Amino acid sequence: MSNSTHLPSREELLDVLRESVHEVFSSTVTSFKQAAQVCEQGETAVALEDENGVRVTASIDLEAAVAFKGSLSGSVVVRCSAQGAMDIARGLLMLDATTSLAVQEIEDALGECANMVSGVLKRRALDPRGTFELGLPEIRRAPKVIGRPGGMLVYQLSEGVVSMELWLDESQ
Amino acid sequence: MAKVLIVDDSATMRKIIMRVLRQAELKVEDVLEAGNGLEGLAALGKAPDIGLILSDVNMPQMNGLEFVKKVREAHPKEKLPMVMITTEGGEAMIQQAMSNGANGYVTKPFTPESIRTALAGFIG
Fold first, then answer.
1. Which of A128, A132, A136 sits opposite B60 (nearest CB)?
2. Which DSSP letter does residue B50 get?
3. What ipTM, to 2 d.p.?
């Protein structure tokens, strides 16, 4: 994907999103496993099937979005259950499962997670020539539809759930 | 032993960097924090004995690229090393940071080993 005239397809973007999430989670989150989602992107809850085929539903309590702008524009969005956000924050801060965190710490950590995933995505898929711009992380306590769905990957963490999503601007 | 200034708009990232500096067993005397380039310049004004700056790139108010440029107006590269720690590891951004006066860069996510390698020449 190093040719500047080639824009990645949705499938290529999702593949790179998967690689990006794995790169970030491998060094930060203690336990993560991609799960089969049984829901649509943009719903207010994430439903997945665990390895035993049991359906699990988790509400989306917090999301962090980082916009990217260039020949392709949209956002990388990390959407979590409250427990998922806590898992991510503890992982990033290298804290054990019993350490409690302030809401601000959790939100900041989720923003940094979105920042790192979008940074890796930019490096790997979007930006071989440095023409894409990334925004600052935006934290929201309620899910927001921000364009058209570009794909989602759902992960089970130690205790919570996280959905890593791509949203593309309507004009794309 | 060096006094280190960490400039990043994420408090989480500043904590991670501090922890990793300890894990990497680098000779760090003290760590100061700033949330963007403007705060970084203010911190540097108050503590001129800072011996190393680690800075993010994408920050509000004054980003890391402008920050490096401003610091270099008064502090040459050889006297005050600056290492960018950023998710934005694109070639153009790296070139820009280096031409503005950065001494090196590390991409996030990082490990204690990659931090140790990047900073070894500046603090032992």
1. A136
2. -
3. 0.84
Are A134 and B110 an interchain contact pair (Cβ–Cβ within 8 Å)?
no
Q: What is the DSSP string of chain A?
A: ---TTPPPPHHHHHHHHHHHHHHHHHTT-S--EEEEE-S-TT-SEEEEE-TTS-EEEEE--EEEEEEEESSS-EEEEEEE-HHHHHHHHHHHTT--TT----HHHHHHHHHHHHHHHHHHHIIIII-TTS--EE---EEESS----SEEEEEEEEE-SS-EEEEEEEE-TT-
Domain ranges of chain A: 6-168
Tell me which fold the domain A6-168 belongs to.
Chemotaxis protein chec (3.40.1550)
pLDDT on residue A2: 44
Q: Would you state the pLDDT for residue A74?
A: 93
Question: Is B121 an interface residue toward A (CB < 8 Å)?
Answer: no
Give CA–CA dist B11/B17, Å, rounded: 10
Give the pairing of strands A148-156 and A33-37. antiparallel
Interior/surface letters A132-160, b for 16+ CB within 10 angstroms, e for the rest: bebebbbbeeebeebbebbbbbbbbbbeb
- pLDDT tens string B36-87: 999 999 999 999 999 999 999 999 999 999 999 999 999 999 999 999 998 8
- Cis bond leading into B112, ω under 30°? no
How far are the Cα atoms of A31, A57, B2, B40, B73 from residue A26, in angstroms, in the given order? Answer: 9, 24, 31, 31, 39
Q: CB of B33 within 8 Å of any CB in chain A?
A: no
Tens digits of residue pLDDT in A76-85? 999 999 999 9
Q: What is the pLDDT of residue B106?
A: 92
